[in-house]
Write a structure and sequence with these properties.
By secondary structure, this protein is an alpha+beta fold. The protein contains 59 helices and 29 strands. The strands form ten sheets. A seven-stranded mixed β-sheet has the order 6-7-22-8-17-11-12, sandwiched between helices. A four-stranded antiparallel β-sheet has the order 2-3-4-5. α49 packs antiparallel against α51. The longest helix is centred in the middle third of the chain and has 159 residues, at about 775-935.
Length: about 1900
Amino acid sequence: MMPMVIRRVEPYSGAQHQRRPSLNPLVERYRILGVTLQHPCHRHYYMAGARVWIPDSEQVWRCAELTQDYKDRLVTVIYTDGQTNEFKVKSDEELPPLRNPDILIGENDLTSLSYLHEPAVLYNLQVRFCNHNAIYTYCGIVLVAINPYEELPIYGPDTIGAYRGHSMGDLDPHIFAVAEEAFTQMERDNKDQSIIVSGESGAGKTVSAKYAMRYFASVGGSDSETQIEKKILASNPIMEAIGNAKTTRNDNSSRFGKYIELDFTQKYNIMGANMRTYLLEKSRVVFQAQDERNYHIFYQLCSASSDEKLKHLRLGHQQTFHYLNQGHSPHIDGVDDAADFQETRRAFMLLGINEAAQEQIFRILAGILHLGNVTLEEDNGDSSTIDSKDESLHIVAELLGIPVEDIQKWLCHRKIVSGREVFTKPMTYTEATFSRDALAKHIYAKLFDWIVSQINKCFAAPAKPFRFIGVLDIYGFETFVINSFEQFCINYANEKLQQQFNQHVFKLEQEEYVKEQIEWEFINFYDNQPCIDLIESKLGILDLLDEECRMPKGSDQSWVEKLYDKCKKWEHFSKPRLSNTSFLIAHFADKVGYECAGFLEKNRDTVSEEQINILKSSQINLVHALFTEKDHRAPTKVKVLPVAPVQSKSKQMKKTVGSQFRDSLSLLMLTLNSTTPHYVRCIKPNDDKMAFTFDPTRAIQQLRACGVLETVRISAAGYPSRWTYNEFSSRYRVLCNSRDIKRNDMRLTCQKIISNMIDDEDKFKFGRTKIFFRAGQVAYMEKLRADRLSACGVMIQKHVRMYLHRNRFRTMRKAAIVIQKYSRGMAARRQAHFMRQTAAAIKIQACVRGWVKRVQYRRLVYTVTQLQAYARGKWARQRFEHMRRVRAAIVIQKNVRAWLTKRRYLKAMRGIITTQGLVRCFLARRRLKKLKIEAKSVEHQKKLNKGLENKIISLQQKLTELKNENVHIKGYKEEITNLKGHLVEMKATEVQLKNSINRVNELEARVVKLTEELEMERDEKMDVLTEKERAEKENRELVERLNAENARLTEELSVAQREESKREAEELLRRKFEAEKQQLFMENADEKLAYQRLLKEFNRLEQKNDLLEEQLAKHKGNNAHKRTASNVSNLSGASDAPTELVRDDASEFSSIIGDDDIGYGSVRSRASEMSDSSRNLENIEWGSPSNKANSSEIKIQVPEKVEDITLVLQLQNKVRELEKERRTLAKQIDHLESSSSPVDDPQHAQELIRLQELEMENAKLKDDLNRLRKSIADAEPQNNRVQEFMKQFEALQDELERRREECIQLRTVLANRAHDLRSLTQTSYGKDVDIVNEDGELALAYQTQKQVNRQLEEELKAEKLRHRETETEYKGELERLRRDNERQQKLLAQNLTKGDSSNPETLLQSEIMRLTSENLNLQGQVDSLTEQLKKYKRSLRAYAKKLKEAGGTGSKRSSAQGSPYGGDPPDLLDVATTNEGEVLPVIRKKEREYMGMFEYDRREEMQIIRVLIYELKPRVAVTFLPGLPAYILFMCIRHTDHINDDEKVRSLLNNIVNGVKRVIKKRHEDLDSTVLWLSNVLRLLHNLKQYSGDKAFQAENTVKQNEQSLKNFDLSEYRQVLSDIAVWIYNGVIKLMEEKVQPLIVPSILEHEAIAGLSGNKPGGMRGRAGSLARELESPVEPQKALDLLLKELTQFYRTLAMFGTDPELITQVFRQIFYFICAGSLNNLLLRKDMCHWSKGMQIRYNLSHLEQWTRDMRLHESGVTDTLAPIIQAAQLLQARKTDDDVHSICDMCDKLTVSQIIKILNLYTPADEFEERVPITFIHKIQAKLQERAEGEQAQATLLMNTKFAFPVRFPFNPSSIHLEDVELPDALPLGMLKKV
């Protein structure tokens, strides 16, 4: 790489400037610019038709076109107005500059032009400003801003938002783009920045600086409450009021320079600011030129003179003040001084300057005005006086708080110190006037500095700033007719700034080449250091001026003579020919002449020391402070010099104004050099302040002065045109063959393209990422490209025309053949047509004649038929009427005869029945008498009672035994007393047992492991508790009934005992015996009748039962046993004890293996769950519960005679009934023991005592029965077989007792298990056991164990199969036994009814022996079966333990299973595991009736809020019912309303509101959380409305929902609060979505190019703009992927909203707002990007938007008007594609009804053809469109809006959406730890 050499080009000297040739100014202009055209290849550019620029005295440059090729140094041109010109040039250097192609005209960046020279820059600015109304243009790193003299709508918040985050080249040029570049570089590079705004007066410097600060204040808003950015903006009105004035060039010209540093924190928020001011124009306070004004603040004060608060200032109209009426222009058009004054006062207040301080400021300003009105009178020529009655003088003294005499004296006198003497010398009128004006200027300067210092105090940062951005608003280069000291300082400052600018531009240009590795030999740039040395070096102008100021008798004339002598050696200094009081300096912009008059006085800035002392003694605090503070605080230093000479030490300490300005300027340059500068050059387009009027002469002067052309010159000296390889290949691939294109290596492709076009390698360079071209090369390539496209177009036209002509010939030939064919065919068709017509005529005649005859015939037939029909119908009706009457008569006769016959029959029957009744009564009475006689017969009684006498005797003996037992009973009572003592001891033991509950704490670790399983069974345990309550109730009723029965029996027994003791005689006993015998006979007869009826009823019920069981078997589909008559037989041979044991074991086994699951949501009735679960294996019918009693009774019944058997059967029936009742009670007691805990019921101890008493009574009855049996057996001592039978019976009875004990033990085990389970439940839930499994969590917890359960179930299948086989065998055996039982029962019944015909003793004995052996066999089988069941139980316990170990406690469930509303849970293994590992049956919950509310303790309120609001995660909430937290909270609110607790509901609602606010503030960046709570808040709001009781919200409610409305509270105010919160959350959701969508809008809508072949590249991108630092920021998203990402984000938004149950209407509103944001962002970006405004890009945009429209259709949002918000951007795309001719004006205006006038005009102005073959939009067309659009009836303000408001929000509405979910159906999921809530 060749080294770069920096060569400075010296500027032209003054002499050279004067010797500029006038014949051909072209060469001189290029000499000024430093640009030459020394390129031999340029000659071939000047061909006929080439367009060039010709110098012109009026238009500066004039456009022309060569009429012939350039040769012989002759140039012939024709101008646009038709004039021709011909001139010769001396060399190629003097050739006129070439014009750029039309496609490059109007570019955003001047350095992107192919030909870089003065006319190209000037014309491009003029086109953009006048035609496109674009006031900003880039020129490399410089932003050129032209003052439009009109308010433009391009500075609003939307524009700030549009430029935020974009680099300078992305959007149209703007001051915000420069500000964004500075802010971004500060963030990225961590370096201070500066923005230098310069330009002459009226160019708009102050406005540009103000807008830059507004941008920083917007994007760098501070976090503190001071809002420093507002204060910075508020300082503008103050500084404009005290520092700006009207001049001939500008109505609001800044008459001082200022540099504002905006301080930023590490987070880049504004934390403070600091302002430095330079060179305030104090002379304007006392003097104004014609048509100029003083500073604005004076006129504002005068406009407010009528204010009561300002009356004391004694102000009036501004024309009454000398300091305000000199310019004779007191008013500014469009400016209201009174309104501005109020704004200034508000700004003072905002900056902390209170009304008291303002009042003092206004006093000083008014004093200055009145000081100017003090009248000085000349006295004797050498002195001056002031009248003591001068009103103005007294006002000044009053306002400034100084003595009148002192100020009157020292305004006309001065003090002279000579040695030790002090003299007072009067001043002349001129000197006094100057002294007064100097004092006024000094006071104003001091006040100005004090206000600036106060503003800085208000701006002061609380801590050290991290970085700052400085905005320099300084005067530009000035030259007037008379230039003085102020212009000299201004131009000196601009020389320094220009030097810094040149060095920075050169540095950036060199860095660009180094970065791209380009070989570049040298670059020439202008260096103005000699001019700066002339001004500030030793013995320079400033040094000589300070030296002259120190001279006692120094004067302006002596100083200028020293300049002539000392500075003549400088080339930039010269003396005018015709003046001895002025001098010339050749500045970088122009040569300026300065008049020396006033230089010394302005540099000294003297004020009388006595006047200063007077002001120091002022009674006004502010006046006193202004002149007593230290001088170093003021930016502008003023020294107070007496006339007498001062000491040298004092001289050294005081600096002149020039020295101070030089020092402050050096400090400023040091600050600027330490920052990264950004440049804004303001241009004044005309001197008449006309809007959008461009004066080329004035513009070119400023362009030369502000350094814009210097930037162009430096760029033109190198390689100004730059392309990336991809862009170049895309643009110029038409210039190469397809074989030269290497898609994998674009650099090689570009090299081949360039090698075919440019031979000179110096004209281009290949960089690392770009191609660099010399000036003019791109225009040359554009010409080659246009020629190639033109040749291609000609070739296409040739072939198309050939094709068209060939087709035309072929068409004509085909047409001739077709004509011939059709003509011949037509002749043949005519002949055939004639023949057809002849045949048709004949056919028609035949048809017509036939038709006439047919019509006549049909008419006749119709007439005859009608006559016949009417006649026959009449006859038929007559016959029908006769038949109907005959039929009616017959019916009447039949009914009458039947009634008569029936009446005779009924009368006869009543007589017969009466006769029969009388006869039968007579016969019955006769029969009754006969029976009574028989009954009184002794023989008959003996016959009937034969064999019963012994029974009576035995009963008497039994009564005697009962008396003896009474004695024993008394002993038992004593034992009962002892037992009661033991009971007390047991109660003490029970207390100890309760104390031992503490041991449970040791088992809590194990309980924690089982918590999940217990939660799964919570629902079933609730059923247990419900069933327990019902069982307890039944138990109490049963106990009461048994107690009553026991009391009755006891009473009867006592009565019998008393009657027995009274029997003292045999006669009484015999009478009683006779009575009882008669009673027994009657009972015997009644029981026989009742027995017959019961048998009939039994048979009927058996049949009905069989039918029902068959139907039940069909429904169950199982192998349940069908009951038969044998099941209810009185006699059975099956044993009961082993059967009960088997049944218990089997029921436990069935509960372990289970059948179909009956879980949450099951369709099976909960009322049948308990019965089904307890009868799983009872349907096997192992045996009848009554077999035991029957078996034992059969074995003892061996009567001697039939009469004895009848009595025994009666007793057996009675015993059987008691036994059944006892067994039933025992079962109920066992069930209650298994389902209730001994400690649950406080009456349990009493019930235990009652049960013991019942058991004792039962034992006593059993003893009575045994004694009765024994007495019967003793009655027949001779019968050994009866004795043997009794022994066997006693053995079986012992076995039965043993089996019963085993059953009791098994029931005890089951009861202990249930007790342990309940104890565990109470340990977990305490007293609130009602919440156990209320929402089905116990069943749900087994879901994840299903996989493990299935594996274990496979292992159980084999065991179950084998068990079923055994069960089938036992069923068969039992069926056989039942058949035998039935057979034996029938035989026994027959034998009992035969009487003496058979021997019952032998029959009974044989049957009893057989049944005994069978019972023994069955007992063995039952024992073996019991062992097998025990084995199975052990196996199942082992499997259950495996289940527990495999399932664990951390099971997870799916979302569908975890949701209580997600459907029915799958089948579960009905196993419940206790803490000891035992397996218990699952207990189901019955249906309960809920009120739809949750009860809670107020102390648990914050816990509820924490669970439902603070800790609720979106991923958990999505598994619930949408809006479930809102439902739960509302149900809690309903409970507070139900109990009418005002404080509780207020506390709950406030906590809900505060909780939601806190969660949203904490998780405001989480979209899921915000959407979750938006949905829940709205659901709670809808619930409050739905259940408010208002009729308007109850239209869709059910009756139950209306009943659940709030009864006591009116929560309408809280509804409004919730609505406001919902709006707040809604705005947060919209903001989140907009933040996610915002980076994707421009890449997806504008930059995405989906249509192949429609590239948006155009020559506007030829030269990449060189920023302050090259910004290599790429788009965050690739444009080709952006559209898919945008649609993906929108889909994700939609799914999130739908997932959390957001109302469909609200989803529509959300996407309506999002689509509006997309439209606004894309349209605003389009309006700010010139490169996007062409036809092909419009098609791409429209295609991209169609994807959004299709997305809305896919999501079913298109019908809700969501896509209507895209109408503006759609119409903008259509506008880019539409034709733009005069005929299309109306159609375009109608098409763009959603775009404002400004937007339409802006798009048309920005529209740039992508190719030269497309015509530009004519200005006349734009004017016609604008005129047509003005006719719109819409508001002017809306039509004047340029950018869409991205902050606009549609009004949000929350339509009422009632819920169809019933509150009583809402359940608490186990994922929410809300155990404190109890469902009511």
